[in-house]
Specification:
This protein is about 30% helix and about 20% strand. It is an alpha+beta fold. It has a single domain, classed as Replication Fork Single-Stranded DNA Binding Protein. The strands form four sheets. Strands 1, 2, 3, 4, 5, 6 and 9 form a seven-stranded antiparallel sheet that branches. A hairpin with a 5-residue loop joins strand 12 and strand 13. The longest helix has 19 residues. It starts with a helix and ends with a helix.
Protein backbone atom coordinates (compact mmCIF):
# COMPACT_ATOMS: atom_id res chain seq x y z
CA UNK A 1 0.00 0.00 0.00
CA UNK A 2 1.37 3.42 -0.95
CA UNK A 3 2.42 5.69 1.87
CA UNK A 4 0.60 8.91 2.58
CA UNK A 5 2.42 12.23 2.42
CA UNK A 6 2.37 12.43 6.21
CA UNK A 7 3.96 8.98 6.50
CA UNK A 8 6.63 9.86 3.93
CA UNK A 9 7.45 13.03 5.85
CA UNK A 10 7.58 11.12 9.12
CA UNK A 11 9.99 8.56 7.65
CA UNK A 12 12.21 11.31 6.25
CA UNK A 13 12.23 13.08 9.62
CA UNK A 14 13.13 9.83 11.36
CA UNK A 15 15.96 9.25 8.88
CA UNK A 16 17.28 12.76 9.43
CA UNK A 17 17.11 12.21 13.17
CA UNK A 18 19.10 9.00 12.83
CA UNK A 19 21.82 10.83 10.91
CA UNK A 20 21.86 13.79 13.26
CA UNK A 21 24.02 11.85 15.68
CA UNK A 22 21.48 11.74 18.48
CA UNK A 23 21.68 15.48 18.98
CA UNK A 24 18.82 17.34 20.56
CA UNK A 25 16.42 18.95 18.14
CA UNK A 26 15.16 22.51 18.45
CA UNK A 27 12.61 21.47 21.05
CA UNK A 28 15.19 19.85 23.32
CA UNK A 29 14.01 16.38 22.37
CA UNK A 30 16.57 13.64 21.89
CA UNK A 31 16.41 10.51 19.76
CA UNK A 32 18.94 8.87 22.07
CA UNK A 33 17.53 7.90 25.46
CA UNK A 34 20.05 8.89 28.19
CA UNK A 35 19.66 5.87 30.46
CA UNK A 36 22.93 6.81 32.19
CA UNK A 37 21.10 9.80 33.71
CA UNK A 38 18.49 7.77 35.58
CA UNK A 39 18.75 8.22 39.36
CA UNK A 40 20.67 5.62 41.29
CA UNK A 41 18.36 2.92 42.60
CA UNK A 42 15.80 3.30 39.79
CA UNK A 43 14.90 1.24 36.73
CA UNK A 44 14.18 2.15 33.12
CA UNK A 45 11.98 -0.37 31.31
CA UNK A 46 12.94 -0.70 27.65
CA UNK A 47 11.44 -2.74 24.83
CA UNK A 48 13.99 -3.41 22.10
CA UNK A 49 12.96 -3.55 18.46
CA UNK A 50 14.56 -5.17 15.40
CA UNK A 51 16.91 -3.40 13.04
CA UNK A 52 15.36 -2.04 9.84
CA UNK A 53 18.25 -3.74 8.04
CA UNK A 54 16.90 -7.26 7.52
CA UNK A 55 20.43 -8.46 6.67
CA UNK A 56 21.52 -7.81 10.24
CA UNK A 57 21.09 -11.08 12.20
CA UNK A 58 21.07 -9.16 15.49
CA UNK A 59 18.93 -6.34 16.86
CA UNK A 60 21.97 -4.18 17.54
CA UNK A 61 25.11 -2.95 15.78
CA UNK A 62 28.55 -2.53 17.30
CA UNK A 63 30.36 0.76 17.36
CA UNK A 64 34.07 1.18 18.04
CA UNK A 65 35.61 4.57 18.73
CA UNK A 66 39.12 5.63 19.71
CA UNK A 67 39.75 8.48 22.13
CA UNK A 68 42.62 10.83 21.27
CA UNK A 69 43.68 13.13 24.13
CA UNK A 70 45.37 16.41 23.25
CA UNK A 71 47.11 19.01 25.40
CA UNK A 72 44.46 21.65 24.83
CA UNK A 73 43.64 23.47 21.58
CA UNK A 74 46.30 25.25 19.57
CA UNK A 75 45.89 29.01 19.79
CA UNK A 76 43.67 28.85 22.89
CA UNK A 77 45.76 28.86 26.09
CA UNK A 78 42.63 28.58 28.25
CA UNK A 79 41.84 25.02 27.19
CA UNK A 80 43.04 22.00 29.14
CA UNK A 81 43.16 18.39 27.99
CA UNK A 82 40.88 17.93 25.00
CA UNK A 83 39.45 14.64 23.79
CA UNK A 84 38.65 13.89 20.15
CA UNK A 85 36.99 10.62 19.25
CA UNK A 86 37.52 9.01 15.86
CA UNK A 87 35.95 5.90 14.33
CA UNK A 88 37.88 2.66 14.16
CA UNK A 89 37.49 1.31 10.65
CA UNK A 90 37.45 -2.25 11.97
CA UNK A 91 33.84 -1.81 13.12
CA UNK A 92 32.46 -1.77 9.58
CA UNK A 93 31.42 -5.14 8.18
CA UNK A 94 30.65 -3.96 4.65
CA UNK A 95 33.99 -2.39 3.71
CA UNK A 96 36.42 -3.78 1.20
CA UNK A 97 38.50 -6.61 2.70
CA UNK A 98 41.72 -4.68 2.15
CA UNK A 99 40.56 -2.16 4.76
CA UNK A 100 39.64 -4.74 7.41
CA UNK A 101 42.89 -4.22 9.31
CA UNK A 102 43.58 -0.73 8.03
CA UNK A 103 43.00 1.20 11.25
CA UNK A 104 46.16 3.33 11.39
CA UNK A 105 45.98 3.55 15.18
CA UNK A 106 45.46 -0.12 16.02
CA UNK A 107 48.10 -1.13 13.49
CA UNK A 108 50.61 0.68 15.70
CA UNK A 109 49.04 0.04 19.10
CA UNK A 110 48.83 -3.74 18.66
CA UNK A 111 52.61 -3.93 18.79
CA UNK A 112 52.66 -2.04 22.10
CA UNK A 113 51.11 -4.97 23.94
CA UNK A 114 54.27 -6.99 23.36
CA UNK A 115 56.18 -4.71 25.70
CA UNK A 116 55.24 -4.22 29.38
CA UNK A 117 56.55 -0.65 29.20
CA UNK A 118 54.06 0.36 26.50
CA UNK A 119 51.11 -1.91 27.34
CA UNK A 120 49.35 0.67 29.53
CA UNK A 121 49.69 3.31 26.81
CA UNK A 122 48.28 0.81 24.33
CA UNK A 123 45.14 0.40 26.41
CA UNK A 124 44.75 4.16 26.48
CA UNK A 125 44.52 4.26 22.70
CA UNK A 126 42.63 1.00 22.22
CA UNK A 127 39.16 1.11 20.67
CA UNK A 128 36.19 1.50 23.00
CA UNK A 129 33.12 -0.55 22.12
CA UNK A 130 29.49 0.35 22.55
CA UNK A 131 26.34 -1.07 21.01
CA UNK A 132 23.45 0.70 19.31
CA UNK A 133 19.90 -0.55 19.87
CA UNK A 134 16.44 0.92 19.29
CA UNK A 135 13.08 0.53 20.95
CA UNK A 136 10.47 2.03 23.26
CA UNK A 137 10.94 3.43 26.74
CA UNK A 138 8.01 1.91 28.60
CA UNK A 139 8.86 3.16 32.08
CA UNK A 140 10.97 6.28 32.40
CA UNK A 141 12.30 7.48 35.77
CA UNK A 142 13.82 10.55 34.11
CA UNK A 143 11.56 13.52 34.77
CA UNK A 144 13.81 15.79 32.69
CA UNK A 145 13.74 13.62 29.58
CA UNK A 146 11.67 15.12 26.78
CA UNK A 147 10.62 12.32 24.46
CA UNK A 148 10.49 13.16 20.74
CA UNK A 149 7.30 12.94 18.70
CA UNK A 150 8.56 9.64 17.32
CA UNK A 151 8.60 7.42 20.44
CA UNK A 152 11.11 4.98 18.92
CA UNK A 153 14.37 5.85 20.67
CA UNK A 154 17.97 4.80 20.16
CA UNK A 155 20.07 3.39 22.98
CA UNK A 156 23.86 3.52 23.26
CA UNK A 157 24.63 0.50 25.41
CA UNK A 158 27.91 -0.02 27.26
CA UNK A 159 29.74 -3.37 27.30
CA UNK A 160 28.58 -4.06 30.86
CA UNK A 161 24.89 -4.01 29.91
CA UNK A 162 25.54 -5.67 26.55
CA UNK A 163 27.23 -8.63 28.23
CA UNK A 164 24.06 -9.19 30.26
CA UNK A 165 21.93 -9.09 27.11
CA UNK A 166 24.21 -11.48 25.23
CA UNK A 167 24.48 -13.91 28.16
CA UNK A 168 20.69 -14.12 28.30
CA UNK A 169 20.48 -14.91 24.61
CA UNK A 170 22.95 -17.72 25.16
CA UNK A 171 20.70 -19.21 27.85
CA UNK A 172 18.79 -22.15 26.29
CA UNK A 173 15.88 -21.44 28.64
CA UNK A 174 15.06 -18.22 26.81
CA UNK A 175 12.38 -19.56 24.49
CA UNK A 176 11.03 -16.30 23.03
CA UNK A 177 12.82 -13.79 20.85
CA UNK A 178 13.02 -10.64 23.02
CA UNK A 179 12.08 -8.39 20.10
CA UNK A 180 8.98 -10.40 19.12
CA UNK A 181 5.99 -8.06 18.79
CA UNK A 182 3.63 -10.49 20.55
CA UNK A 183 5.79 -12.53 22.91
CA UNK A 184 8.83 -10.34 23.45
CA UNK A 185 10.44 -9.27 26.70
CA UNK A 186 11.12 -5.87 28.23
CA UNK A 187 14.64 -5.13 29.48
CA UNK A 188 15.10 -3.44 32.85
CA UNK A 189 18.09 -1.11 33.07
CA UNK A 190 18.91 -0.96 36.80
CA UNK A 191 21.40 1.61 38.00
CA UNK A 192 23.35 1.17 41.22
CA UNK A 193 26.91 2.06 42.17
CA UNK A 194 30.03 0.08 42.99
CA UNK A 195 33.38 1.46 44.02
CA UNK A 196 32.32 4.98 43.12
CA UNK A 197 31.26 4.01 39.59
CA UNK A 198 27.86 3.53 38.01
CA UNK A 199 26.98 -0.16 38.01
CA UNK A 200 24.37 -1.92 35.88
CA UNK A 201 25.18 -5.52 36.76
CA UNK A 202 21.70 -6.15 38.17
CA UNK A 203 19.96 -5.21 34.91
CA UNK A 204 17.82 -8.02 33.53
CA UNK A 205 15.02 -9.10 31.24
CA UNK A 206 11.48 -8.96 32.58
CA UNK A 207 10.15 -12.27 33.83
CA UNK A 208 6.99 -12.20 31.76
CA UNK A 209 6.40 -11.78 28.05
CA UNK A 210 4.20 -8.95 26.85
CA UNK A 211 2.87 -7.78 23.47
CA UNK A 212 3.46 -4.36 22.01
CA UNK A 213 0.59 -1.99 22.61
CA UNK A 214 -1.53 -0.67 19.77
CA UNK A 215 0.08 2.76 20.17
CA UNK A 216 3.52 1.19 19.80
CA UNK A 217 2.46 -0.78 16.73
CA UNK A 218 1.01 2.41 15.25
CA UNK A 219 4.29 4.24 15.88
CA UNK A 220 6.25 1.55 14.02
CA UNK A 221 3.79 1.80 11.13
CA UNK A 222 3.94 5.59 11.04
CA UNK A 223 7.64 6.24 11.56
CA UNK A 224 9.30 2.98 10.59
CA UNK A 225 12.38 1.48 12.23
CA UNK A 226 15.86 2.97 12.20
CA UNK A 227 18.62 1.40 10.17
CA UNK A 228 21.04 1.13 13.06
CA UNK A 229 24.14 1.39 10.88
CA UNK A 230 23.10 4.96 10.05
CA UNK A 231 23.79 5.92 13.67
CA UNK A 232 27.47 5.07 13.33
CA UNK A 233 30.03 7.55 11.96
CA UNK A 234 30.59 7.50 8.23
CA UNK A 235 33.27 5.09 7.00
CA UNK A 236 36.53 7.08 6.89
CA UNK A 237 37.87 7.82 3.43
CA UNK A 238 41.52 7.24 2.53
CA UNK A 239 42.14 10.93 3.19
CA UNK A 240 40.41 10.75 6.57
CA UNK A 241 42.47 7.70 7.56
CA UNK A 242 45.59 9.76 6.93
CA UNK A 243 44.16 12.54 9.11
CA UNK A 244 43.38 10.02 11.87
CA UNK A 245 46.97 8.77 11.72
CA UNK A 246 48.31 12.31 11.87
CA UNK A 247 46.09 13.17 14.85
CA UNK A 248 47.13 9.98 16.64
CA UNK A 249 50.82 10.76 16.25
CA UNK A 250 50.27 14.31 17.47
CA UNK A 251 48.34 13.04 20.48
CA UNK A 252 51.05 10.57 21.47
CA UNK A 253 53.66 13.33 21.07
CA UNK A 254 51.76 15.54 23.53
CA UNK A 255 50.81 18.21 20.99
CA UNK A 256 47.67 20.37 21.19
CA UNK A 257 44.69 19.84 18.91
CA UNK A 258 45.09 21.91 15.75
CA UNK A 259 41.69 23.10 14.43
CA UNK A 260 43.26 24.53 11.27
CA UNK A 261 44.63 21.13 10.23
CA UNK A 262 41.91 18.82 11.48
CA UNK A 263 38.82 20.92 12.21
CA UNK A 264 36.93 20.00 9.06
CA UNK A 265 37.43 16.29 9.72
CA UNK A 266 37.21 15.54 13.45
CA UNK A 267 36.84 17.95 16.32
CA UNK A 268 36.21 17.93 20.07
CA UNK A 269 32.66 18.31 21.29
CA UNK A 270 31.85 21.97 21.89
CA UNK A 271 34.61 23.35 19.67
CA UNK A 272 33.39 26.09 17.35
CA UNK A 273 35.61 26.97 14.40
CA UNK A 274 35.19 30.37 12.77
CA UNK A 275 35.80 30.07 9.05
CA UNK A 276 34.48 33.51 8.17
CA UNK A 277 36.62 36.01 6.26
CA UNK A 278 39.48 37.27 8.35
CA UNK A 279 38.95 34.61 11.00
CA UNK A 280 39.82 31.40 9.18
CA UNK A 281 41.13 28.79 11.52
CA UNK A 282 40.24 30.55 14.76
CA UNK A 283 38.38 28.53 17.32
CA UNK A 284 36.63 28.71 20.64
CA UNK A 285 35.00 26.28 22.97
CA UNK A 286 31.27 26.88 23.18
CA UNK A 287 29.68 26.85 26.63
CA UNK A 288 28.60 23.33 27.50
CA UNK A 289 25.95 22.15 29.94
CA UNK A 290 27.16 20.34 33.04
CA UNK A 291 27.81 16.80 31.77
CA UNK A 292 26.58 13.61 33.37
CA UNK A 293 29.37 11.63 35.05
CA UNK A 294 29.96 9.40 32.07
CA UNK A 295 32.03 9.18 28.90
CA UNK A 296 31.01 11.16 25.84
CA UNK A 297 30.83 9.22 22.59
CA UNK A 298 30.04 10.91 19.27
CA UNK A 299 27.25 9.62 17.06
CA UNK A 300 28.91 11.26 14.05
CA UNK A 301 32.64 11.69 13.86
CA UNK A 302 32.79 13.78 10.71
CA UNK A 303 31.25 17.18 10.01
CA UNK A 304 30.09 18.66 13.33
CA UNK A 305 30.74 16.18 16.13
CA UNK A 306 27.75 15.44 18.31
CA UNK A 307 28.12 13.44 21.50
CA UNK A 308 26.04 11.37 23.85
CA UNK A 309 27.05 9.81 27.11
CA UNK A 310 27.01 6.04 27.25
CA UNK A 311 28.73 5.29 30.57
CA UNK A 312 31.23 3.16 28.66
CA UNK A 313 34.15 4.55 30.62
CA UNK A 314 32.39 5.29 33.88
CA UNK A 315 31.02 1.92 34.93
CA UNK A 316 32.81 -0.52 37.17
CA UNK A 317 36.09 -1.15 35.38
CA UNK A 318 36.05 -4.84 36.32
CA UNK A 319 33.07 -5.45 34.07
CA UNK A 320 33.25 -2.69 31.48
CA UNK A 321 36.81 -2.85 30.22
CA UNK A 322 37.18 -3.69 26.56
CA UNK A 323 39.70 -6.45 25.94
CA UNK A 324 42.81 -5.38 24.10
CA UNK A 325 44.03 -6.58 21.78
CA UNK A 326 40.87 -8.35 20.76
CA UNK A 327 39.53 -10.57 18.02
CA UNK A 328 36.13 -12.03 17.25
CA UNK A 329 35.18 -14.71 19.76
CA UNK A 330 33.04 -17.78 19.47
CA UNK A 331 30.47 -16.26 21.84
CA UNK A 332 29.15 -13.97 19.11
CA UNK A 333 28.66 -16.97 16.84
CA UNK A 334 26.87 -18.79 19.64
CA UNK A 335 24.59 -15.79 20.17
CA UNK A 336 23.64 -15.88 16.50
CA UNK A 337 22.95 -19.61 16.78
CA UNK A 338 20.68 -19.05 19.77
CA UNK A 339 18.77 -16.33 17.92
CA UNK A 340 18.32 -18.66 14.94
CA UNK A 341 17.15 -21.45 17.23
CA UNK A 342 14.57 -19.19 18.86
CA UNK A 343 13.29 -18.04 15.46
CA UNK A 344 13.00 -21.62 14.21
CA UNK A 345 11.14 -22.64 17.35
CA UNK A 346 8.67 -19.84 16.74
CA UNK A 347 8.06 -21.00 13.16
CA UNK A 348 7.39 -24.61 14.13
CA UNK A 349 5.26 -23.84 17.20
Amino acid sequence: MALTLAQIRAKLQAQQAARSGGANNNNGESVVYPHWDIPEGTNARIRFLPDADTNNPYFWVERAMIRLPFQGVKGDPTTKETIVQVPCIEMYEDIDSKYKNACPILAEVRTWFNNPDTEELGRKYWKKRSYIFQGFVRENPLTTDKAPENPIRRFTISPQIFNIIQASLLDPEMDSLPIDYEEGLDFLVKKTSKGGYADYSTSSWARRESPLTQDELDAIEQYGLFNLKDARPNIPTTEELEIIKEMFEASVNGEPYDPTRWGKYYRPFGLVIDNSAGNAGTSSVAPKPTPAPAASVPEKATETVETVNDDADNVNSDTAADEAPTTATSSSTKAQDILAMIRNAKKTA
